[in-house]
Design brief:
The protein is mainly β. The protein is built from four helices and 29 strands. The longest helix is centred in the middle third of the chain and has 11 residues. The two termini are 20 Å apart.
């Protein structure tokens, strides 16, 4: 099935002046500007199916296959819930810290067309510094639930607050003037772009809020992994990938390392702790309907149940996929090949962009 992807030229300037964006709990002014050019790409996607006779993976005693990366980890890590932290992603927050250690990095649009990220960590105790941490948006609760993760945030929108309180969701609710031992502010940036945590503080906050750390009984993970690195069958060339979000995510495939190197805002995205550029084995694009639910603050809602289209990118190739999710409370998002089979992704770190249906993804050779 052919899919034509067209990037329509445009200029977007968005500025938001409010309190916690949606909900007016926290003062902020954020402005972004993006410019795009018209590009047309045609892809021919073929179904990727499980190879017959694939060598069975032997997992050593005391080890397990990570639910997040498909890599071999200590069994104890798979027995506890990961932690998902809301990450500030405006230029004043750059470079971010610790997110290069994330197993999965989500990015989605919030008010004013800006984006925020959610970094998911399985081995969070070892974090030296992570942040800047920012306020919650209600649909990020669903992203965290997809990974069975404990959600951490500094502040919240009114919609996130209502949902957390009405549904009794236990999160790491770091609030200004609250539990100072669970976070700290750096002195090299101005608020609200200077809130951070350490691995030790994350562990302390989990205890403070009494969050259950045990994975659901018999949980097998929502992602399906190849046993070894496998190029997507019949994929279109994807040596570079550009997504028309305001942060201008740009990926370049490094064939020697077998990973995509990530840039944004026209510069390599660097982890301030390590000095390394962010890299991912997998890129997953999920198109979903966005709706403005507060015109004054441009607050967004995302329809994350039902089904929709998407794209899986790895090893320099891209294929069309679909996604489906029956309900927010008990189901997880499932990625499928075009014939309805469960998508298998490569072992390693993943970047997941949940974007409006009219946003464009541009691939090049």
């Amino acid at each position: 099935m052919k899919k034509k992807i067209t990037w329509v030229a445009g200029l977007t300037i968005a500025a938001v002046l409010g309190v916690s964006g949606c909900g007016k709990n926290e003062a902020q002014t954020e402005a972004v500007q993006t410019e795009s050019q018209t590009v047309s790409v045609e892809t021919q996607a073929e179904t990727e199916t499980e190879t017959q006779g694939e060598t069975e993976m032997v997992i050593p005693e005391g080890k397990a296959r990570s639910f997040l990366t498909g890599e071999i980890v200590d069994e104890s890590l798979n027995e506890r819930r990961p932690v998902a932290l809301m990450i500030n992603n405006v230029t004043e927050a750059l470079p971010q810290s610790g997110i290069g250690q994330a197993d999965i990095l989500y990015e989605a649009v919030v008010e004013g067309k800006i984006t925020r990220m959610m970094a998911v960590f399985q081995d969070y105790e070892t974090l030296e510094k992570v942040g800047p941490i920012r306020s919650a948006r209600h649909y990020y609760l669903d992203f965290a639930h997809d990974e069975e993760a404990i959600y951490g945030h500094f502040g919240w929108s009114i919609y996130a607050q209502n949902r957390i309180q009405s549904e009794g969701i236990k999160t790491l609710q770091l609030m200004a003037g609250g539990l100072n031992s669970d976070y700290y502010r750096s002195d090299d940036r101005v608020a609200p772009h200077n809130v951070y945590m350490t691995g030790e503080q994350i562990v302390h906050a989990i205890g403070t809020f009494g969050v259950d750390t045990a994975m659901p009984e018999n949980y097998e993970g929502r992602l399906n992994f190849n046993n070894t690195d496998t190029e997507p069958a019949g994929g279109a060339d994807a040596a570079t990938v550009d997504i028309s979000m305001s942060s201008s995510p740009h990926f370049e495939y490094d064939a020697d390392q077998g990973v995509y190197m990530k840039s944004q805002y026209g510069e390599p995205q660097i982890d301030d702790v390590t000095g390394d550029q962010l890299s991912f084995e997998n890129i997953i694009i999920q198109y979903a309907p966005y709706t403005c639910i507060d015109t004054n603050a441009d607050c967004q809602d995302i329809a994350l149940t039902g089904s929709g289209k998407g794209m899986y990118i790895s090893d320099g190739k891209a294929v069309d996929i679909t996604w489906e999710k029956e309900n927010l409370d008990t189901d997880h998002t499932h990625y499928l090949t075009e014939d309805g089979s469960a998508l298998k992704i490569n072992p390693g770190k993943s970047y997941i962009a949940v974007i409006p249906e009219d946003y464009e993804v541009t691939l090049s050779k």
